[in-house]
Write a structure and sequence with these properties.
Shape of chain A: globular
Number of helices of chain A: 18
CATH superfamily of one domain in chain A: ANL, C-terminal domain
Structural class of chain A: alpha/beta
Strand content of chain A: 15-25%
Oligomer: homodimer
Strand order of the largest sheet of chain A: 2-1-10-9-11-12-13-14-15
CATH architecture of one domain in chain A: 2-Layer Sandwich
CATH topology of one domain in chain A: GMP Synthetase, Chain A, domain 3
Helix content of chain A: 25-40%
Number of strands of chain A: 26
Largest sheet of chain A: 9 strands, mixed
Radius of gyration of chain A: 24 Å
Chain lengths: ~525, ~525
């Protein structure tokens, strides 16, 4: 038997180490570009330490929450280190939320301090002034204005913070999910989980110290999918982007020699369709998630020297948990067959645990994997280091989410014979027609493969014979035309005829939430008006 | 205050996950090439599971040690997973040790099973037959012979092992150090440490799923610097090499499209000087450690399209803990100035903790960092997840090694103004002359920069006036000549005159240990014969 020897305590895992190391190894390297401001890694580390000292001097610290209501800025990147350096948890709030929603979050997390961009402070002034923690107004992009500098000044005499954490399972951040029903829930991330998912992002996205990362993804989305920490781990350069606009993206791609960015498929469309689009000098890697990338945008971007790959995860999984890993054997596939492969959510990352598709026994809570046949539908469940600690101050919701020891995503998927998982629907969006499950995602993908279709949302609408039938709301591309019959015929050659939509409605835009999610609820309200239930069969 | 919510248990970190995932995601991809044998990832995972089942069926398991006495083979790669899969610790023994040393290790770790190559089983038959655990003879490179297959057969009926570990601080491996004095000590590695250092190797060496890794480094050296796990993490291909010979290396570089290998500087010389050397088709990344790479070999290899980078660590730090990270600002340096930069040991890796150079107060055991001036000499100390759990069954040595909470390497170094650490000597090899410390490593580097010098060892010899003076033992390159005066003059233009050797002795070969370390002790024996002490001043 191996006897125990003196246990030397392991260093707790924390992303704080990443900034400390980057500043030690690459002190002069540019850490953050924000408009005309350029901060070296020394300056970034000093700024984080100054923030931590001022937080401590304000009487806020271990176990407290600190909220940010800010666009992608140098200050928000720094907050990802300065706030946990003070022992507090960062709550980066979605800037498109309403005053009511913001008020709810500030109250729910008992924010000890609130940092806000000037324009957002004005917009939500009433909420920020009442009850919540002290308000600090962040500077403009040029570094002037606001009350941030004077806030920092109060920390001058405070002790230098330690770049370490005593307990790696301490909370580093709370991210509120933008639930379409009910109140937002606070998803808690640990130092350990953030550290490991950041390393996973480094490995899978291929970051290194030459990386110049353009922040097209909001930092308030899962801490930028842990990118705030991952890019810093390799001492790459963060290039802030305060609004996702084609001209700005294309200007920065060239000016800052960008090699990586991330974002929802909408970002890909904005890039591909921008008037400024042109083949890139440096190859660009684009990580997308939230929905499968459209084959059309992927193809357009490939011609511009950008490689698109597909990640999958939720706020509860620190952002990306899985990715559609490219298989060498796919090299011979024609573009259409390849795009079918690449639209899948894929496999768990190196730092993640398994990605399972299961049926849950409602009595025993036992999980049974569905067969790997690409047909049997189950719920996607995940667990491990890169799954949240729980919902903040909501033990009941946490217990429900982790029924059977695995996090239940609420997403429905299939597992293909090669083991790759494909999302077929959000649980509540499935259309059941004639007893058959129809995946609205699959149908949306089929419609998106038509060259005239820019955006699409599929919902179930009542049907006398079949219970429900799918209906598609379609936004056409600029200067393109298509008829309802043409689109239905197009779908029928792509997927089984019974899945084709009954009707197509052409609209100018889809209703979307503050985070850009399509509000199918609003579409259903239209279609199901006057009925008692939305289940019809 | 943040209240605690239901804690969902994190998945314990373990490299076992790497093989399970690689087999799930890339089942058909080649995991291991060993001579004419090629194992897919499915086959590798099945082989590891078969090994684990047979170990369990043999009554060996959790808390036991299992020894391997084997060259770089498919079986030894698989043992890195199959042994811990059975809950046991892998003890991969240096194949160049004597029967006595092997007997000591087998006894010290109470090996429950011993796996040996046929030739080594013959060579050490008496030791292996007596007392130690059951002997299993491994097959030849073509997969035939030995008793391994029949051993595996006994596990057929055993239960499928779980690809997980209950406690991430459990021991995954014990690596015995080849101390030049005293008995070998067993350095214990944990699942957590192996997992994290493997991810560090992936990031710093730049492994990905296209990686074809040539095993020039013995797998029994710190588990191949954790490469057995790191290459598997990205589902790269392990290409086994059973003896480090130029023709075999150059044949495999081409045949297997190798992009990475590692090894001591001697491997670099063998490669650079081989008759088969030619510019490579695929760029090759070579990680070297144990001693700084010689500028001459680095330059020769660069011309062949191989990039050399320099790692630093010890058996106690899972192999590499630090690396000489390349700075973008070095791009403008001339080759000589650059080689001076690259010969430094550098900075702690992303997954490591700090790399410190300290003076230890002998009474309080407090550590004080030396100034960053490139001159003040201190001891290199390290800690954290990628430092050993301790010396197996040697609490006293463990306590001494971790005096003050940091692992004391016994290596002496300086810290330069840019924060990079440079090893100046092994503690026992410092030459003290006229009260000045002279680094034998620095002097060896200066001599190696002469085009005629192939190998060199510097020791202190007695001197009436200065106490000690350095003396150099030099092996010249084939068909090159140089005189003592010429070499001393060469050194004096490189470094301070007082550091130049008093004498140069030309020899055909340096005395080396089984692991290739120069046995300076033997050289000192010659020089200090008849004296009571080896300190002279």
């Amino acid at each position: 038997m191996i006897t125990n020897q003196r246990r030397v305590v392991d260093t707790p895992l924390t992303p704080l180490r990443f900034l400390r190391r980057a500043a030690d190894v690459y002190p002069e390297k540019t850490a953050i570009v924000d408009g005309s401001r350029r901060l070296s890694y020394t300056e970034a580390a000093e700024s984080a330490a100054a923030l931590a000292r001022a937080i401590a001097a304000s009487g806020v610290g271990a176990g407290d929450s600190i909220a940010y209501l800010a666009g992608n800025s140098a200050e928000l990147v720094i907050a990802h280190f300065g706030v946990p350096l003070a022992g507090a948890a960062l709550v980066a709030i979605n800037t498109r939320l309403s005053s009511d929603e913001i008020a709810y979050i500030l109250d729910h997390c008992s924010a000890g301090l609130v940092f806000a961009d000037g324009s957002l402070a004005d917009q939500h002034g009433a909420v920020l002034a009442s009850g919540a923690g002290e308000l600090v107004v962040l500077p403009e992009q040029d570094g002037t204005g606001g009350t941030y500098e004077s806030f920092l000044a109060r920390g001058c005499a405070a002790a230098e913070p330690e770049w370490a954490v005593a307990d790696e399972t301490a909370t580093i951040a709370i991210n509120y999910t933008s639930g379409t029903t009910g109140r937002p829930r606070g998803v808690t991330y640990t130092h350990r989980g953030a550290y490991l998912n950041a390393l996973g992002q480094v490995i899978h996205q291929g970051f290194d110290f030459t990386t110049n990362y353009l922040w097209t993804l909001p930092l308030f989305h899962c801490n930028g999918w842990c990118g705030a920490w991952a890019v810093t781990a390799v001492a790459g350069t963060h290039v802030c982007l305060r609004a996702v606009r084609g001209p700005d993206i294309w200007r920065l791609l060239a000016a800052e020699n960008i090699d990586h960015l991330s974002g929802a498929p909408a970002v890909l469309s904005i890039m591909a369709e921008a008037a400024e689009a042109h083949p890139l000098e440096r190859p660009l890697s684009i990580a997308t998630g939230g929905a499968p990338p459209s084959p059309a945008a992927t193809k357009q971007l490939k011609e511009l020297r950008a490689r698109v790959f597909h990640l999958y995860g939720l706020t509860e999984t620190y952002g990306p948990y899985a990715m559609c890993e490219y298989q060498p054997t796919w090299a011979g596939l024609d573009p259409e067959a390849l795009s079918v492969k690449l639209a899948r959510q894929g496999v768990g990352m190196i730092t993640a645990d398994e990605l399972r598709v299961v049926q849950t026994d409602p009595d025993t809570l036992e999980l049974e994997d569905v067969p790997c046949d690409g047909v049997a539908i189950g719920e996607i469940v995940m667990r491990g280091n890169t799954v949240m600690k729980g919902y903040y101050r909501d033990e009941a919701a946490t217990a429900t989410a982790f029924a059977g020891g695995w996090f239940h995503s609420g997403d429905l998927g299939v597992r293909h014979p090669d083991g790759y998982v494909q999302l077929v629907d959000r649980a509540k969006d499935v259309v059941i027609s004639g007893g058959e499950n129809i995946s609205s995602v699959e149908l949306e993908q089929a419609l998106l493969s038509h060259p005239a279709v820019a955006e699409v949302a599929v919902i179930g609408v009542p049907d006398e014979r079949w219970g429900e039938r799918p209906k598609a709301y379609v936004v056409l591309r600029a200067e393109k035309v298509a008829t309802e019959d043409e689109l239905i015929a197009h779908v029928k050659v792509k997927i089984a005829g019974y899945k084709a939509p009954k009707m197509v409605a052409f609209v100018d835009a889809l209703p979307r939430s503050a985070t850009g999610k399509v509000l199918k609820q609003q579409l259903r309200d239209l279609e199901w008006a006057g009925r008692a239930t939305r289940i019809h069969g």
